[in-house]
Amino acid sequence: MRQLKPHEQKLLRKVNLYQWKRDDNNVREAKIIRKYGIQDREDYTRYNKLSGLVTKVVAQLRKLPASDEERIKMTEVLLDKLYTMGVIPTASSLDKCVELSASSFARRRLSVVVTRNHFTEQVSQANRYIEQGHISIGPDVVTDPAMHVTREMEDCLQWSQGSKVKRNVMEFNEELDDFELMGPLWLYLGLALALRAREFRCRVCCMRGASAAASPRFVIGSRSPARLSPYQRPSSSLSSSAQSARKMVNPIDALGQGSRLMVKEPAIVLTEKETAVFKVIMDTIHHFQLNTVPRAAGGWVRDKLLGKESDDIDIAVDDMSGETFAYKVKDFLATTSPNASCSSVGVVRANPDQSKHLETATLRVLDISLDVNNLRTETYTQDSRIPVVALGTPQEDASRRDFTINALFYNLRTASVEDFTGKGLEDLRAGIIRTPLEPTITFQDDPLRILRAVRFSTRLGFRLDDGIVKAASDPNIYGLLLTKVSRERWGV
């Protein structure tokens, strides 16, 4: 037997062989304890026993006939309980219960949920904050990092009142908001200056026209050199240079002088991923025997018509909420294709006080992000500026969107482009940013659309409609932009 080398002896001294044998060499246990910040080893043992117990219960239930009333009742109770606890992604099948492990329960620990919701960056830091009393669920402060957090409890997770960490976070966010506020303000200032430049150009043209009529002898001839506008390039012809000297380019019009994007035919060519995702949506409708007409909407349709690719698709449904339809898609994939790539469903709640009127469900299917919502119509009462949102028709939904080029739909049933405003395709061909309704009404609904108009104009090389420029100069609209729109949405 050869003698151990120094590095081998060093490694051997670090290993307690007796303890290693007693722990059954459980590397997976140590990995889970370290990953989820489990402070008590008994917690891992408890999670392991729970997952094993559930597996045994499922095995006993499957021995009963599928039509047995007791099996059906107990299956519903078990699935509902586990789904409420958050340890299974969907309550559609017992197959999810068999996949339970210690990690399924460890992921619902308070410290892990706090980290997943971006309160902290590391689980160890979350453990420390919880023990110090910085985290509360509803009004109650929780100091146990091992507390199991259900789906309902996760919605009530927040910083505790009087927490110094919460105060520091709020102060930092306020400073960040002030910094990010400057960017959109400069955009709005540029829009206002461009409007003033247009008015100045009109006055100069009127003055020049009156001067030329009063003194016809002052005519720029071929022998006198013409003074060029800084916006114009020199021409080989002096006569054309003289004409360009009388022309001032409006900065607003200059935004639309980029490469013109032409749309000859309203046809959309789908990629393989898009075809697969749309097939999943249609198969979901057939599986649940729905009468839903799904439509791709918004920026995805616009970009596809302009020859640009996008992996973010807005889906509008006409007979249910976006959240309901999103869960049907997820349940369909979980039942028919368990190995298919599908994320959990997230819901962005409506906030009318901050001009966020529409509730949106988000999920990722086959590596494509889907934002699902319903077609909507809005009505206002006399004593409130907050609209009453209800299911609407495609025509009503298109009229409430920000711009005509974003009000186009792609019908998944007919595989055709729909333009319910009658102006979307025309404006897309002409390169114009226009609102479906009167610009003042559109901007009062969501003042952030002023900044979106400028961004679309610069990004696509489109020209702003005169009505948008006029409405954007209204001080009342700018006041709504500062007071009605949350700071987080300024970066939209």
From TrEMBL:
RNA-binding S4 domain segment(s): 108-175
The entry's keywords: RNA-binding, Transferase
Organism: Perkinsus olseni
Transmembrane intervals: none
Domain of life: Eukaryota
CDD domains from the UniProt entry: NT_ClassII-CCAase, S4
An annotated GO cellular component: mitochondrion
Annotated protein name in UniProt: CCA tRNA nucleotidyltransferase, mitochondrial
GO biological process: tRNA 3'-terminal CCA addition
Boundaries of every Small ribosomal subunit protein uS4 N-terminal domain copy: 3-107
Cross-referenced InterPro entries: NT_sf (IPR043519), PolA_pol_head_dom (IPR002646), Ribosomal_uS4_N (IPR001912), S4_RNA-bd (IPR002942)
Similarity field: Belongs to the tRNA nucleotidyltransferase/poly(A) polymerase family.
